[in-house]
Amino acid sequence: MYKLLKTCGRAKRGEFHTPHGVIQTPVFMNVGTLAAIKGALSTEDLEQIKCQVELSNTYHLHLRPGDKIVKQLGGLHKFMVWDRPILTDSGGFQVFSLTSLRKITEEGVHFSSHIDGRKIFMGPEESMQIQSNLASTIAMAFDECIGIPAERPYVEASVERTTRWLERCKKEMTRLNSLEDTINKKQMLFGINQGAIYADIRIEHAKRISELDLDGYAVGGLAVGETHAEMYHILEEVVPFLPQKKPTYLMGVGTPENILESVERGIDFFDCVLPARNGRHAHVYTNAGKLNLLNAKFELDETPIDATCDCPVCRRYTKAYIRHLFKAKEMLAMRLCVMHNLYFFNTMMEEIRLALDENRFPEYKKAKLEGFSASQRQIIP
To answer: Residues in domain tRNA-guanine(15) transglycosylase-like (predicted)?
Structure first.
């Protein structure tokens, strides 16, 4: 159940009550593709860096170790020793990124594993069954993520099929949640809005899926080739047609700037691989912009990554030491930077929630963006 605590323009401050605890929104979900954050972060680390929701990947866990094995081991929460909420994506994005390895039909998608080439079929029912086996808190509906640019006739046909798939997902989840051997009988379902950058298609799709009264709604198919301006425009157009009293999730986004702009447009949930991926390559986020710790100027720098940050890394380690670890190819370098970056994102969401609570989000957003120098903001990917 989603409780809307207050609004500031279109920005929302809420609480989402789930079988695995209450999620304070807006929230950034930390991406652990294979039930682990890339960069050697443990479950204990996630607790320490303020992670509220961990996100795992249905497609990858289906292939390794196998969702049926995870079920035999008690589900994802027990498997990775994590008692807070977990969201699993549907596998749709990964399947549809395998352009040369898949074939789409009304029933679902036939594709080849990127690991060993074996033939696999996944449709709405299969995706729900896999996610039920994983026993995540929130399951995502199986949809087609459309690349941009895309021709309008294709988008229209794809969105129609995605709607039919969503209805099948809802029916199958209802069945699975009623079975005696289902681990999480209160698993929640989020539908996904699609339509590329055609606002009218997006709006019509939003209206249709809203009628299904799901637990939450995502805006998918963005951050896949369009400009930031196009993404913001689509959010401005479509979010008002999604239920305000349900959580709204912008999939695969994004940078600190993207998040601030999207919160202003009514988004509650975010996820992105950037903090962890950038951290593994020595790129770290600070309140003054993004830094590359491999730069020679940090060789003798005895200050923390960000003097204003209270993360476990900044409380103890220097830029010079972390740079040395990267140069020496020590795994600890990646671990420290990923930990800092995720703490930075989780803390920013905490600040956003407080600003909304105190009715000062516009001022907070302005000050936060101004904190990044113009040159630094240009290099945030």
So the answer is: 10-370
